[in-house]
């Protein structure tokens, strides 16, 4: 089989990226069965077990009456700040927010974010990257050089572990920790998976060099250690087993339930064939890779964050993650954090089910909550198949689902079990979670509650949360420039337009620069 390693050259990475960016359906989903009829009309409800929970709009944080009432429980934070009159986060004092950032770095960030928010600039950049120019070595090198000194430096930690380590230390000096993410995308054969395993192991080993680790997590993508085509096969089998309990999966290990009543099952419309001997062998190899990563991270005492991807393969990712979490943990501390994407209609139900299963088995597990990054490809696949989209109908429902999942985990933490990473750039979600944590009496430096933002993004929120006393990490991709390109283009896409995520940052950085340049 031809090697499609992530180290392949730019055109492959770009075609992967453009597939995602242009919202086409991932290649491994193209074998999907013929269209199904819609599973039902879309609603603005999310489903938890048999009960319908209306998704509420975002509360106004200036208005205490809209703060969460902690699910019928009284506020258990006697003596804690009253968040209605004493806002937990101060996001307006630019001097305090950027006190650890040098003026040259602020100027550079301001220019880069400004460029990344200009739609024509992003469109032009993406056109160039997708053009035949990239096949001319000298032009390709020039373009990559420009990118390296602008976007790459802003959004990435460095080309290798040594460079990333400098960025980690700089963040640490500013009071932030790092989630180290070796920039790997899908690997399609065992050879590339083995190479990626080595990269993960080296990344974990690098965290041991610090006496007190400024690295909070090592990030793992299951698609980098198990070919996505196999994850799709496993997901199909798991889905069918959920629908038809008579299906026996001989290779299946102990796990938590990965589906909920509201989970989409449309990807699998006919009984899948059992894994072939070769597939079963590849599956064992992939699981062994994950166990090697877990053993190494146990030794290094560094937890793992498993990224979530698209719904066609997510059941297999969840299965790998939960099976490994059952096998590997540090006494009461979770070693593994799975990711829940709140833009999915079944997100909260799956979160609650997995947490309850973990509690029953006495297994500590952490969760990273995100909104989700594969929205257009998910919608496109559902539309191709003629089924209801798995994504919430409107952004408000996604916001509400994220906040409800966060609220659920904060209550679990207040009750003494659970760990969560709230991975978001959304100011309202950040403020709401900070206020809820305070109201529930969760200490701000409680290691069970962490916040995270991508490196180079949402600096105002990161520093605001850090200044309030919360634990904050930046998600730090590193790796060679051409390898990181798909990640960078996703960031450019996320920052485009006037209402881009970076608008508050641009405003606050400008305010701080003016303050510094005009004060004596
Ligand atoms: C530390 C970290 C780790 C991450 N890891 C992952 C990961 O493992 N897997 C993953 O998929 N993503 C991951 N992400 C990306 C994340 O899912 C989001 O794409 C990104 O953070 C923006 O969401 P936000 O919470 O910051 O919210 P906002 O800044 O408020 O962004 C909201 C965005 O959500 C989108 N959206 C969601 N639902 C809807 C809807 N129903 N209708 C319209 N628009 C909608 C829109 O594009 C909108 O721009 C991660 C992000 C961070 C910060």
Automatic annotation (TrEMBL):
Transmembrane segments: none annotated. GO terms for biological process: proline metabolic process. Residues 75-85 have a biased composition (Polar residues). The keyword Flavoprotein applies. It comes from the Eukaryota. Pfam families: Pro_dh. Residues 56-86 are annotated as: Disordered. Converts proline to delta-1-pyrroline-5-carboxylate. This is Proline dehydrogenase. It comes from Penstemon smallii.
């Amino acid at each position: 089989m031809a090697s499609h390693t992530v180290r392949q050259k730019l055109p492959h990475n770009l075609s992967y990226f453009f597939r995602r960016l242009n919202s086409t359906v991932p290649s491994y989903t193209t074998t999907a069965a013929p269209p199904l009829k819609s599973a039902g009309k879309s609603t603005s409800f999310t489903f938890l077990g048999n009960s319908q929970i209306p998704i509420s709009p975002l509360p106004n944080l200036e208005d205490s009456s809209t703060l969460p009432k902690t699910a019928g429980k009284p506020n258990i934070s006697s003596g804690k700040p009253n968040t209605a009159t004493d806002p937990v986060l101060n996001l307006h004092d630019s001097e305090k927010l950027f006190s650890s950032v040098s003026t040259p770095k602020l100027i550079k960030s301001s220019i880069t974010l400004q460029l990344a928010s200009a739609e024509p600039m992003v469109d032009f950049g993406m056109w160039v990257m997708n053009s035949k120019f990239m096949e001319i070595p000298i032009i390709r090198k020039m373009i990559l050089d420009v990118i390296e000194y602008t976007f790459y430096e802003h959004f990435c930690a460095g080309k290798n572990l040594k460079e990333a380590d400098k960025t980690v230390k700089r963040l640490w000096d500013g009071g932030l920790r790092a989630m180290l993410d070796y920039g790997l995308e899908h690997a399609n054969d065992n050879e590339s998976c083995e190479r990626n395993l080595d990269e993960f192991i080296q990344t974990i080993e690098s965290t041991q060099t610090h006496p007190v680790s400024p690295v909070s997590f090592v990030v793992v993508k299951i698609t980098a250690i198990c070919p996505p085509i196999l994850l799709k096969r496993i997901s199909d089998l798991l889905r069918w087993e959920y629908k038809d309990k008579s299906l026996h999966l001989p290779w299946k290990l102990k796990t938590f339930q990965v589906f909920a009543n509201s989970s989409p099952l449309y990807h699998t419309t006919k009984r899948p064939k059992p894994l072939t001997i070769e597939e079963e062998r590849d599956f064992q190899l992939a699981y062994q890779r994950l166990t090697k990563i877990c053993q190494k991270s146990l030794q290094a005492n560094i937890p793992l964050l498993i990224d979530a991807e698209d719904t066609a393969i997510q059941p297999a990712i969840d299965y790998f993650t939960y099976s490994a979490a059952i096998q590997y943990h540090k006494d009461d501390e979770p070693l593994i954090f799975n990711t829940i994407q709140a833009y999915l209609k079944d997100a909260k139900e799956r979160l609650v089910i997995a947490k309850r299963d973990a509690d029953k088995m006495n297994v500590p597990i952490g969760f990273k909550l995100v909104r989700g990054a594969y929205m257009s490809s998910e919608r496109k696949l559902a539309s191709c198949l003629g089924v209801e989209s798995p994504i919430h109908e409107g952004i408000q429902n996604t916001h509400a689902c994220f906040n409800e999942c966060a609220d659920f985990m904060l209550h679990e933490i207040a009750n003494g079990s659970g760990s969560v990473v709230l991975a978001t750039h959304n100011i309202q979600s950040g403020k709401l979670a900070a206020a809820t944590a305070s109201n529930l009496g969760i200490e701000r430096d409680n290691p069970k509650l962490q916040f995270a933002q991508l490196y180079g993004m949402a600096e105002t929120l990161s520093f605001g949360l850090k200044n309030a006393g919360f634990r904050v990490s930046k998600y730090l991709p590193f790796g060679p420039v051409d390898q990181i390109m798909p990640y960078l283009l996703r960031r450019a896409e996320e920052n485009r337009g006037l209402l881009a995520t970076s608008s508050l940052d641009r405003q606050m950085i400008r305010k701080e620069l003016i303050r510094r340049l005009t004060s004596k």
